[in-house]
């Protein structure tokens, strides 16, 4: 089986406070002791550098940060959103591929996706579930066939096959007259 390799670079933007060594932060909750402040930045050194740029040759850059709950900037993509987006995009592309092979005429495709991040008793978080809600419009006689393809698309999506948490697909397909 052939292998495919993907490459990108991540560049930190802004200042990195190195006055705190990483060993002194071990065992702390990712929220730190400053969550009660309700601020968008931490009240301790060593945690300011969240802005970053994801770069891949020939593609637009992705400007990133951490999620707001981790003192990031809401105007930038965070890793949790990018993971959810990867699952949504993979399902979409798998579905379109299968629908094309089956002769299904997709007239419209939209999807909402949500993810759940939970904290364990060890204070570490992990994604526990992503829910994909594709909404597809097809000609009248293709509705049932298109609806059934979502299961196949989910099984074919190599991103969904690579994660260790539930990815639920709750599809709605409507017939156009």
From TrEMBL:
Residues 20-43 are annotated as: Disordered. It holds the Pfam family OsmC. It comes from the Bacteria. PANTHER family: OSMC_OHR FAMILY PROTEIN (PTHR42830:SF2), OSMOTICALLY INDUCIBLE FAMILY PROTEIN (PTHR42830). This is Organic hydroperoxide reductase Ohr.
């Amino acid at each position: 089986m052939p292998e495919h390799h993907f490459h990108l670079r991540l560049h930190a933007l802004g200042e990195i406070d190195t006055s705190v060594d990483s060993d002194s932060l071990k065992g702390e909750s990712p929220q730190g002791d400053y969550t009660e402040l309700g601020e968008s930045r931490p009240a301790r050194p060593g945690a300011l550098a969240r802005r970053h740029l994801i770069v891949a040759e020939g593609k637009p850059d992705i400007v990133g940060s951490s999620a707001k709950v981790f003192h990031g900037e809401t105007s930038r993509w965070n890793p949790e959103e990018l993971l959810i987006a990867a699952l949504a995009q993979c399902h979409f592309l798998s579905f379109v591929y299968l629908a094309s092979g089956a002769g299904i005429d997709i007239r419209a495709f939209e999807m909402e996706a949500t993810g759940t991040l939970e904290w364990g008793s060890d204070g570490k978080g992990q994604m526990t579930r992503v829910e994909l809600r594709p909404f597809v419009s097809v000609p009248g006689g293709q509705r049932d066939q298109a609806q059934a393809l979502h299961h196949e698309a989910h099984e074919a999506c190599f991103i969904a096959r690579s994660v260790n948490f539930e990815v639920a697909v709750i599809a709605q397909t409507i017939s156009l007259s």
